[in-house]
Amino acid sequence: MELQNLDCRKGSLESSTSIRSLGRRAETLTNKKQVVHDHSNNDRTVTPIISEVPRKQKIFAQVQFLTLCWTLFLAGWNDGTTGPLIPRIQEVYNIGFAIVSLIFVFGCVGFIVGALANLYLTDKLGFGKLIFLGSLCQVVAYIIQCSAPPFPAFVLAYSINGIGGALQDAQANGFVATLKSNPETKMGILHAAYGLGAFASPFIATQFAQLPRWSFHFLVSLGMAVFNSILLIVVFKLKSQDECLSLGGEVIPEPSAEQDVTTSSFRQVLRTKAVHLIAIFILIYVGVEVTIGGWIVTFIIHERGGGPSSGYISSGFFGGLTVGRVLLLPLNRKIGEWRVLFLYTLLAIGLELTIWFVPSLIGNAVAVSIVGMLLGPMYPIAMNQASRVLPRWILTGSIGWIGGFGQAGSALLPFITGAISSARGIVSLQPLLISMMTIMMALWWFVPAVPRRVE
């Protein structure tokens, strides 16, 4: 009997030892190897990549994001170029405010065409092909402009550039808006890159505006655009958005049960009220932003007696824009993005009043920079709000339409400014900006504040 009990205890001890041994072995296999099951039910061991894959995906996601930041940097570079070059363009082509404003008209046409094309082509071509196509449009535009062709060809290039800018802006914003990790911060940084480009370009454009070969500024832009095209095709490889997101470690959710599979995303976007409210808001916002950057130099020269270096004031505005998109992120979170936009708009209107009524060159220059800082967060805030209130299955198309249609404001409002200035003088710039900011604030009131997005 004792022998029997001894045997039982021994067997139990051996079983316990065996279990512990198996546990240690399983732990070793987890750390060192990975079991992969194939269709023939045979197990095989491979070198694990448990810790390697997420790290590689994280790095690749950062490369994707930085590539999109470069694309937005080039967009800002393009918009920041116009203001310092306008006086030289008027001189070279012997044209007034109304005719030079055709630059903005042709750009507006290009942006609207690009926005509509993006909405239609997103499902057909996909993210990678469409954003690369947009970059090629910019390359073509700069090739035309760098030779200072006759004015009709020169302004036609702005239409081609507008199409390319709308496609890239739409796809870049749609991509970042779908990210799960810190999308608000990344959207702010993405548009800070735009501001950085718009801040840098007036320094170069102001120098070229004083040279005989002024149009060679567009050779610099051409080199940057070619580099942008190479980056886009190397990093994204013409793949769809979901494929690119997966390569960066993003989890792609299954389509929602509420998705209307019988209706095209094109129609779903166009029948969503919030999309159009945000799109019109962005149109006015971008118009205000580019109008200040494009016409403030002319205003300072004519109304405040500024010299040839007044182009640097445009850099001050876009520098403030860049700083605001990063520096004000904590305040945006603390107050709430929907509410804080009203505060920024009211402060910007107050500063525009000082620029209008206080004839101080230095004071105006400082005020312009602070206005840029206050306006800076508004675009990423609007895009973040769109990502909260719109369903994911129409988010890319919606943000594409919002971004593309909104970019038309960068042409429409500056043209209106030029047309009014032709009749009333450039002094009309400030009352026009104040009225547009007031309309912008009123529109934002109707944008949904509470997230209603369904995954």
From TrEMBL:
The chain crosses the membrane at residues 59-77, 97-120, 127-144, 150-167, 188-208, 214-236, 274-297, 309-328, 340-358, 364-382, 394-416, 428-447. Residues 64-454 form the Major facilitator superfamily (MFS) profile domain. It is a multi-pass membrane protein. SUPFAM superfamilies: MFS general substrate transporter. It is found in: Endomembrane system. GO terms for cellular component: endomembrane system; membrane. Gene3D superfamilies: MFS general substrate transporter like domains (1.20.1250.20). Keywords: Membrane, Transmembrane, Transmembrane helix, Transport. The keyword Membrane applies. GO terms for molecular function: transmembrane transporter activity. Its main location: membrane. Belongs to the major facilitator superfamily. This is Major facilitator superfamily domain-containing protein.
